[in-house]
């Protein structure tokens, strides 16, 4: 236990060491100052955009020049030299030994504590809410049944489908891609399923940090309620997911509803050490998962989703890998993760980094980031199984890094020059989270400089709860990635 704690502290120290090297600006006029103080003027967020698309380097250079003109006595924004943070002593043989000087080391300890306690506070708040929530999570609660008339059949309504104005009864509904029909909220199976996965994830991680068995007890209860209890359980299929009113079955795209199951499956192993973990419940859950995965492999809806070229296919792969791994089919998961990563990079990314199957959508910016999140999950799983998917390069030069780089200048310019239809905003919070991870994976200084500009806007989006964004930093996610663990709460 002592060794484990020391290892954890060392990992935290490494993370904050990198953080401080990146963002601490030295102030020789005030040697006593230990507070990290980087100012972000409003012009960084709302600066007038250029008329043409510029490279990331040009945008960052222009940002720096404009800031110099507008802001006086501003701390340097570019990451300072590492050498400024090191001091030197000499051993008995006269050899130099460099170390982080006392000023930066003290600040690193301060930030370490702040970041860790903020993360833990937010996590425990979420877990406590899940613990106290006594509402029922069940597919049997919906006011309208699927065509099967079985209340245990999961059903969600197709997001972008609306009543047909040319039909008196509006049936069957017709598609308007990019425009969400609020009627989807009348069937709660989708939102309850997402809430279930997030609750179990938060309860599991809260147990990891606190060893409070109450969190595990609640997680087991939720698993029983959704997957085991004969009165409230969901049937192990998605026949009526993404259902279009006026049709007889759901659509292949409805398989996407289940993709966040990885949140639950990655938290279960860390709860098994609790005395409140229920082995019988887990055996029944595995039976459910096994039956569901067989349905995915054999039903036309599942097979059709797997064959999809866009984000639907990518998230199918993520879901399948986690399911296989949870069922202890590790070699299949290993093979699947490598083949899926190569396939999605080769067919889903161009040599420029554009994701053509996402940019053809009316909400092209959102879907470009959404699929990139799935690619990050795929790369993490492939790395876990021994294949470096992060640095895989396709036959035409395609790579995940190129997909990150392609979006960067448009994120910096608030979408100016984006050459595709985009009927929604150019939000950056989700992209900034990926950009932070990207720097850990590929230490590109452009990412750091871009983060200094983009992070204030991302935090504003969090504060305004744009797209239900949570107010939190990426601390746990970055730490997890650096220690070769799962991505945990990194992506949606």
From TrEMBL:
<dbReference type="GO" id="GO:0016829">
    <property type="term" value="F:lyase activity"/>
</dbReference>
<feature type="transmembrane region" description="Helical">
    <location>
        <begin position="7"/>
        <end position="24"/>
    </location>
</feature>
<keyword id="KW-0812">Transmembrane</keyword>
<keyword id="KW-0472">Membrane</keyword>
<feature type="compositionally biased region" description="Basic and acidic residues">
    <location>
        <begin position="60"/>
        <end position="77"/>
    </location>
</feature>
<dbReference type="Pfam" id="PF05426">
    <property type="entry name" value="Alginate_lyase"/>
</dbReference>
<dbReference type="InterPro" id="IPR008929">
    <property type="entry name" value="Chondroitin_lyas"/>
</dbReference>
<keyword id="KW-0732">Signal</keyword>
<feature type="domain" description="Alginate lyase">
    <location>
        <begin position="138"/>
        <end position="418"/>
    </location>
</feature>
<protein>
    <submittedName>
        <fullName>Alginate lyase family protein</fullName>
    </submittedName>
</protein>
<dbReference type="InterPro" id="IPR008397">
    <property type="entry name" value="Alginate_lyase_dom"/>
</dbReference>
<keyword id="KW-0456">Lyase</keyword>
<keyword id="KW-1133">Transmembrane helix</keyword>
<dbReference type="GO" id="GO:0042597">
    <property type="term" value="C:periplasmic space"/>
</dbReference>
<feature type="region of interest" description="Disordered">
    <location>
        <begin position="44"/>
        <end position="85"/>
    </location>
</feature>
């Amino acid at each position: 236990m002592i060794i484990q704690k020391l290892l954890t502290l060392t990992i935290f120290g490494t993370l904050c060491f990198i953080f401080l090297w990146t963002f601490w600006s030295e102030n020789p006029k005030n040697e006593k100052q230990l507070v990290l103080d980087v100012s972000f003027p409003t012009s960084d967020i709302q600066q007038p955009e250029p008329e043409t698309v510029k490279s990331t380097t040009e945008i960052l250079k222009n940002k720096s020049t404009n800031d110099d003109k507008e802001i006086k006595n501003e701390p340097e924004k570019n990451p300072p030299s590492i050498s400024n943070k090191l001091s030197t002593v000499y051993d008995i043989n006269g050899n130099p030994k460099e170390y982080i000087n006392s000023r930066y080391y003290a600040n690193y300890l301060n930030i370490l504590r702040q970041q860790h306690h903020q993360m833990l506070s937010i996590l425990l708040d979420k877990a406590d809410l899940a613990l106290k929530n006594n509402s029922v999570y069940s597919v049997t609660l919906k006011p309208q049944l699927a065509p099967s008339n079985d209340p245990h059949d999961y059903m969600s309504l197709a997001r972008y489908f609306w009543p047909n104005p040319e039909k008196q009864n509006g049936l069957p509904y017709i598609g308007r891609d990019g425009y969400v029909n609020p009627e989807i909220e009348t069937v709660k199976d989708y939102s309850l399923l997402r809430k279930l996965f997030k609750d179990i994830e938060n309860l599991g991680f809260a147990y990891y940090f606190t060893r409070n068995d109450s969190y595990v007890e609640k997680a087991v209860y939720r698993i029983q309620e959704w997957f085991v209890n004969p009165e409230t359980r969901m049937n192990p299929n998605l026949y009526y997911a993404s259902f279009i009113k006026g049709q007889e079955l759901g659509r292949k795209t409805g398989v996407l509803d289940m993709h966040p199951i990885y949140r639950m499956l990655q938290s279960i192993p860390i709860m098994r050490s609790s005395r409140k973990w229920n082995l019988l419940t887990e055996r029944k859950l595995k039976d459910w998962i096994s039956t569901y995965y067989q349905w995915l492999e054999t039903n036309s809806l599942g097979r059709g989703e797997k064959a999809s070229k866009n984000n639907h296919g990518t998230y199918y792969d993520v879901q399948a890998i986690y399911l296989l791994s949870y069922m202890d089919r590790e070699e299949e998961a290993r093979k699947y993760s490598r083949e899926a990563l190569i396939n999605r990079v080769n067919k889903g990314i161009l040599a420029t980094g554009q994701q053509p199957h996402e940019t053809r959508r009316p909400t092209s910016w959102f879907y470009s980031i959404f699929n990139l999140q799935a690619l990050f999950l795929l790369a993490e799983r492939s790395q876990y199984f021994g294949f470096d998917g992060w640095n895989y390069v396709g036959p035409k030069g395609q790579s995940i890094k190129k997909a990150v780089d392609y979006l960067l200048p448009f994120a910096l310019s608030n979408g100016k020059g984006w050459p595709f239809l985009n009927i929604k905003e150019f939000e950056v919070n989700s992209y900034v989270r990926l950009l932070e991870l990207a720097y850990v994976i590929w230490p590109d200084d452009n990412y750091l400089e871009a983060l200094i500009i983009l992070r204030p806007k991302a935090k504003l989006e969090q504060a305004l709860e744009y797209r239900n964004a949570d107010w939190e930093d990426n601390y746990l996610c970055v730490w997890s990635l650096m220690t070769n663990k799962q991505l945990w709460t990194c992506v949606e």
